[in-house]
């Protein structure tokens, strides 16, 4: 059985709808919860997934585990092994490849579509065209050298990128499972929402509406990406 090592920072930001396609593709899922379990071997897992967290890549003095994750991703990318980064994970991949990560100056939190680039139309991200996805970030990054730019929003240019078939960074949250509910996010990020002046009731309503289209399209996107990975 293939293995997928998943670095998780907060309990409610998990694989969500991506868990199903991973299992169907024959992967054994192993979570590595920061603070409870050490980092995975950079080369051993067949797939490495780094999930989101409410911290900045540049806060390594405050959160030392970020240094370990950057080193892990550098080794992983150098070895040409498959890796997926979501939100913080995408920013960590960008950093590991020498790109700058920094505050965008505003919070992009809520549901909305992304603008796919021409590069994305022949990739699995095409399934997300016109589909409202969850955004939850205040940082952004420069595009890594050699990366294909895949998606943007009006307030954040770099929403997704890829390096060949094996490396994918996604700033937004296609894995969010509306059926599981957004309540843990609203509670866990209550201070951030209050500081940004965002009404959780709107997020709750939009999450309910996302049940119609997001899960199915996200599973198609991720399943196709998995099928295209190379050794």
Explain this structure to me?
- With 231 residues, the chain is an alpha/beta fold.
- The protein has one domain (2-227): 3-Layer(aba) Sandwich (Rossmann fold), CATH 3.40.50.
- Helices cover 29% and strands 27% of the residues.
- It has seven helices and ten strands.
- It has an eight-stranded mixed β-sheet.
- Strand 3 (47-50), helix 2 and strand 4 (83-86) form a beta-alpha-beta unit.
- The protein starts with a strand and ends with a helix.
- The model has no long low-confidence stretch (mean pLDDT 96).
Attribute tags:
alpha/beta; Rossmann fold; two-stranded antiparallel ribbon; 231 residues
Topology at a glance:
Elements: E1 2-8, H1 19-24, E2 27-33, E3 47-50, H2 65-78, E4 83-86, H3 88-96, E5 101-112, E6 115-116, E7 133-141, E8 148-153, E9 156-163, E10 167-170, H4 183-188, H5 190-196, H6 200-210, H7 214-227
Parallel strand pairs: 1-2, 1-3, 3-4, 4-10
Antiparallel strand pairs: 5-7, 6-8, 8-9, 9-10
Helix pairs in contact: 2-3
Radius of gyration: 16 Å
CATH superfamily: Class I glutamine amidotransferase (GATase) domain
Biggest beta-sheet profile: 8 strands, mixed
Strand fraction band? Answer: 25-35%
Number of helices: 7
CATH class: Alpha Beta
Main sheet strand line-up: 2-1-3-4-10-9-8-6
List the uncertain runs.
none
Structural class: alpha/beta
**Average pLDDT value?**
96
Domain module count: 1
Q: What is the terminal separation in angstroms? A: 15 Å
Range of helix content: 25-40%
Shape label: globular
Do you know the CATH topology?
Answer: Rossmann fold
CATH architecture: 3-Layer(aba) Sandwich
Number of strands: 10
Task: Spell out the helices and strands N to C.
Answer: EHEEHEHEEEEEEHHHH
């Amino acid at each position: 059985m293939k293995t997928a090592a998943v670095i998780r920072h907060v309990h409610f930001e998990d694989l969500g709808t991506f868990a199903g396609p991973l299992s169907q593709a024959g992967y054994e899922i192993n979570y590595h919860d920061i603070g409870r379990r050490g980092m995975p071997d950079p080369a051993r897992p067949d797939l490495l997934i780094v999930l989101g967290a409410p911290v900045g890549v540049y806060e390594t003095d405050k959160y030392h585990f970020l240094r370990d994750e950057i080193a892990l991703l550098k080794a992983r990318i150098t070895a040409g092994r498959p890796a997926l980064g979501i939100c913080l994970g995408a920013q960590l991949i960008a950093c590991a490849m020498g790109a700058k990560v920094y505050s965008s100056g505003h919070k992009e939190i809520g549901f909305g579509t992304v603008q796919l680039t021409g590069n994305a139309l022949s990739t699995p991200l095409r399934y997300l065209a016109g589909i409202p996805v969850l955004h939850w970030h205040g940082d952004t990054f420069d595009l890594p050298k050699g990366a294909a730019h895949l998606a943007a929003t009006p307030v954040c240019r770099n929403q997704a990128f890829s390096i060949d078939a094996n490396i994918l960074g996604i700033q937004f949250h296609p894995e969010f499972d509306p059926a599981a509910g957004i309540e843990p996010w609203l509670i866990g990020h209550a201070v951030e929402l209050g500081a940004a002046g965002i009404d959780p009731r709107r997020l709750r309503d939009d999450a309910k509406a996302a049940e119609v289209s997001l899960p199915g399209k996200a599973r198609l996107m991720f399943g196709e990406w998995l099928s295209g990975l190379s050794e």
